[in-house]
Amino acid sequence: MKPLKFPHRSHGDCLPSYKSRFPFALFQRKLNKSRSPSAYTQKKQPFSNAVMAVGPYLPPRFSVAPMMDCTDNHYRTLARLISKHAWLYTEMITAETIVYQKDNLDRFLAYSPEQHPIVLQIGGSNLESLAKATELANEYHYDEINFNCGCPSSKVAGHGCFGVRLMLDPMFVGEAMSVVAANTDVPVTVKCRIGVDDHDSYNELCDFIYKVSSLSPTRHFIIHSRKALLNGISPAENRSIPPLKYEYFYGLLRDFPDLRFTINGGITCIGEVNAAIRAGAHGVMIGRAAYNNPWHTLGHVDSAIYGKPSSGLTRRQILGKYQVYGDSVLGKYGQKPTVRDVVKPLLHLFYSEPGNGLWKRKADTAFQHCTTIKSFFEETLVAIPDFVLDSPVGETPVGRDELFADIHSLLPPPYEVREQELLHA
Fold it and tell me: In sequence order, what are the residues at sequence separation of 6 or more whose Cβ sits closer than 8 angstroms to the Cβ of residue 179?
């Protein structure tokens, strides 16, 4: 399919008026389909039958969050060796990168078939670039395409005018999601926060969800249950300083029953994942815990979340398979990837285990001269006791039982569509 042509969206204007970028008549027709304030108590067509469509894969009850400089091909290869059923996400890739690198796309978009189910996360604020990038990505057969409306990085939300800043412009997000959906046959989803700066009320969050879902076929939202602060704090601080408001997430489940929501933020182990699902979440996304402690997090996903057999592999066996992968990709793109690049996600595989500190010190030395993954392992794995290398995953960690215990008593007042405000936005 040839990408549609769209007006160029100036990057110098982060928030132009809604009317200038979406045909008003189309928005009005969408709203006319659900005029009453209680519209979200009923199913909407034609998209309700396609909610969280997953093809041959189990639904995304558990997914690993897209993380810049973390969820690259190397990490995803490791993650899939540990869990067969966790949904994996790429790092965010900007639409412009995909378009400009169209003759070098394998470096950015290629992955092994074993990584399915896998989601491509894209970012951007130019409709034509989003259309072209989506079409180019079709060749790689991702299972979903996710649009980033949650990154608080100053490079993204500031100079880039996308990421979480787009939550202030839901009309554009709806338009962008329609453009992406028009250029792919796979489901499209949005990852966002619960608010931005002072725009952090529950009704403002609901307005965002309502507009985007009314203007596009988006039926699945991944909600990071913190707002973002764009006042100069770092992305890391934005993962801890704004308070978690899980009551907003569970309010969305109540007020938008025809949509699907995955919860993200502050959940650190499989026991807490199951607690969130028992409270009603359709899915749970974990980020840093799945990266910083992959064995004890991902190792329980298949059995504890999906009720399926685990891989049964020990860490020694996983490293044997990873070695074959690692040595096959070294230097594939000139000088990259290096031994350090390939080994990076493995540095957390022995989190809190005996020998972990010595293993990392040996790794620092080995990076200076090892030219293969095999030689790296031969030099460093002597630091890890055999019983650690050969032991099974162990029992599922329980986590904080109280995390969602009283959540339904804390929900905000039900959302009512403020129709006149929407029509004249």
Answer: 4, 6, 127, 130, 131, 134
Contact (Cβ atoms closer than 8 angstroms) between residue 227 and residue 196: yes
pLDDT of 155: 63
DSSP tag of 91 = P
pLDDT surpassing 70 at residue 244? yes
* Amino acid at site 160: G
Between CA 405 and CA 414, with CA 411 as vertex, the angle to 5 degrees is 150
> Are 323 and 373 in contact, with CB atoms under 8 Å apart?
yes
**Which member of 151, 161, 192, 370 is catalytic?**
151
pLDDT reading at 250 higher than 70: yes
Q: Three-class SS of residue 421? A: helix
Beta bridge partners, 376, equal none
* Interacting residues of 198 by C-beta distance below 8 A, sequence separation 6+: none
Q: How confident is the model at residue 42 (pLDDT cuts 50, 70, 90)?
A: very low
pLDDT of residue 56: 86
3-state secondary structure of 149: strand
Average pLDDT, the chain: 87
Q: Read off the amino acid at residue 353.
A: E
Among 167, 211, 173, 172, smallest CA distance to 18 is for: 172
- Nearest one of 125, 149, 142 to 218, comparing CA atoms: 149
If you count DSSP H runs as helices and E runs as strands, how many of each does the chain have, helices first?
17, 9
Q: What are phi and psi of 379, to 5 degrees?
A: -85, -30
Q: Is 112 helix (H, G, I), strand (E, B) or coil?
A: coil
Q: Is 161 a catalytic residue?
A: no
pTM listed for this prediction? 0.87
How far the first Cα of the chain sits from its last, in Å, is 33
